[in-house]
Amino acid sequence: MSFPWFEFAGLMLAFGINAVLPGADFAMVLRQAVVHNRRAALFTSAGIAASILVHGTYTLLGVGLIVGQSLLLFNVLKWAGVAYLVWLAISALRSPPPKAPEIGANDGAATGDLGAFALGFLTNLLNPKAVLFFLALFTSLVSVRTGFETKVFYVGSMSLMLFTWFALVSFFFTTTSVRQGFYRVGRWFNRVTGITFLALAFRVAIAQQR
Hints:
Blueprint: H1 5-20, H2 24-36, H3 38-60, H4 63-69, H5 71-94, H6 113-125, H7 128-140, H8 148-173, H9 176-185, H10 187-205
Helix pairs in contact: 1-8, 2-3, 2-6, 2-8, 3-6, 3-8, 4-5, 4-7, 5-10
C-alpha cells in the first residue's frame, strides 16, 4: 500500500496553521526566551512537542474520544488547565522585570532544563482544546483505512513540526536586538504576559464540548 501523501499534506497543513496561531504555547516560549535564555526556551519547546506525542497517542488509542464525549472528564481537564494558566499569570505578574543577564552569567540555571521542559509539557497537556483539536483532525482528515503505523508517523511528524516552529521562535526572541527591546519595557512585559495568561485561562474556562 502506497503512502497517503495527500492525506498527510492536508493533515500537516491544518496542524501547521493551528501551530503558528498565538496561544498559551507561544506565550510560554516567548516568556522563557526573554526572561531566561535560548536554552530554556528550547527545552520548553521540547516539552510542548512531547505533549503532542501524548495527545496523539491517546487519540489513536481511542481515549481522546472518551474524554471528548464525557462531560465530567472534559471539565476536569478544563479546570485543571484553567488553574495552571492562572498560576502562570500570577507568577508572571509577581516576577521582577526582566533584565539583561550579566556577561558570563548562566541565567538558564534559574529554571533548569527539566523545569523548562515540564513547563512546556504541562502548558500544552492541560489544554482541553488540544483534545478536541486532535479528535477533529483525525476524524475529518484521516481515513479509517489508514494504517496504525502511518498514523503514528503522522503524530511524530506533527510533534517534530511543532518543535521546529517553536525552536525558530526561541532563536528569534533570543537575538540581542529583540531581547533588548523587551528589556526596555521592563515590568510591562510581565504585566502583558500575565494578562495574556489570564485571557487564555478565560478562553479555556468558557470552552465547550462540540
